[in-house]
UniProtKB/TrEMBL annotation:
<dbReference type="Pfam" id="PF07847">
    <property type="entry name" value="PCO_ADO"/>
</dbReference>
<keyword id="KW-0408">Iron</keyword>
<dbReference type="InterPro" id="IPR012864">
    <property type="entry name" value="PCO/ADO"/>
</dbReference>
<dbReference type="GO" id="GO:0016702">
    <property type="term" value="F:oxidoreductase activity, acting on single donors with incorporation of molecular oxygen, incorporation of two atoms of oxygen"/>
</dbReference>
<keyword id="KW-0479">Metal-binding</keyword>
<dbReference type="InterPro" id="IPR011051">
    <property type="entry name" value="RmlC_Cupin_sf"/>
</dbReference>
<keyword id="KW-0560">Oxidoreductase</keyword>
<dbReference type="GO" id="GO:0005739">
    <property type="term" value="C:mitochondrion"/>
</dbReference>
<protein>
    <submittedName>
        <fullName>2-aminoethanethiol (cysteamine) dioxygenase b</fullName>
    </submittedName>
</protein>
<dbReference type="GO" id="GO:0046872">
    <property type="term" value="F:metal ion binding"/>
</dbReference>
<dbReference type="InterPro" id="IPR014710">
    <property type="entry name" value="RmlC-like_jellyroll"/>
</dbReference>
Length: 249
């Protein structure tokens, strides 16, 4: 085994992620928060060169679909406890608003700039009042797909920024937009998506209230209604090889 000072930073991140997320019963306690802080510090240090990733140039001519996915993913490693990889977004691309059921996450920009819009879901049992109107109006069956939420935060992140963190209760739903050109970010999710274990990815859109509806606030934050939708047709994710240091778990 390599001495620690010769270990790649991505290997150190993977080891720390395993320590942080290997015991779900500890999530939220003092030891977990301490390990999460160590992971956050390591994520703050990493740069694109550590993964042997070079910033992409602004896309020139677009190629015919489906050979030109707006987003690609480099798989680095995955265990039962966490997954880690790099998402690469082309200029103007977005990862639509989606959730991470019961999951923690940490996102660190490698190059370029992203805008992350986060939402927090409120009481899952809350149903929309029958007199609540939207523009355009909803069909009756669509009301069952609504989720009461609040706009948590909107921020822009670059390689000089610290990581963006999500938990099962905070910033768990987010949309990620490439700003001013191509971008890439290192992504950790814990535990990984697993539809068989209740962790499937769901997509949403923000509904606009009718003009005569009053905007509500929850604890001073803007309350919104999100509607679950199918994966948007303009979004899909391709794969590409990871060129960086090998990670062993």
């Amino acid at each position: 085994m390599l001495r620690d000072n010769m270990t790649s930073i991505v290997q150190k991140i993977a080891r720390q992620a395993l320590v942080t997320f290997r015991n779900p019963s500890s999530f939220g306690d003092k030891a977990f928060l301490g390990n999460q802080c160590k992971l956050q510090s390591l994520m703050t240090e990493i740069r694109a060169a550590d993964l042997k990733i070079a910033p992409r140039k602004v896309d020139s001519a677009s190629t015919p679909l489906p050979h030109n996915p707006p987003v690609t993913y480099m798989h680095i490693c995955e265990t039962d406890e966490f997954s880690m990889g790099v998402f690469l977004l082309k200029s103007g691309a977005s990862i639509p608003l989606h959730d991470h059921p019961g999951m923690y996450g940490m996102l660190k920009v490698m190059y370029g700039k992203v805008r992350i819009t986060c939402f927090d879901r409120l009481d899952k049992s809350t149903s929309v009042a029958s007199d609540t109107q939207f523009s355009p109006p909803l069909l009756p069956f669509q009301r069952g797909a609504l989720r009461r939420s609040i706009l948590g935060s909107v921020g822009e992140f670059t390689e000089e920024s610290g990581p963006c963190i999500l938990t099962p209760d905070r910033n768990n739903l987010h949309q990620i937009d490439a700003v001013d050109g191509p971008t890439a970010f290192l992504d950790i999710l814990a535990p990984p998506y697993d539809p068989d274990d209740g962790r499937d990815c769901h997509y949403y859109k923000v509904l606009q209230s009718a003009p005569d509806s009053e905007d509500k606030k929850a604890d001073g934050q803007k309350e919104v209604w999100l509607m679950e939708v199918s994966q948007p047709s303009e979004f899909w994710c391709g794969g590409e090889p990871y060129p960086g240091p090998e990670v062993k778990i």
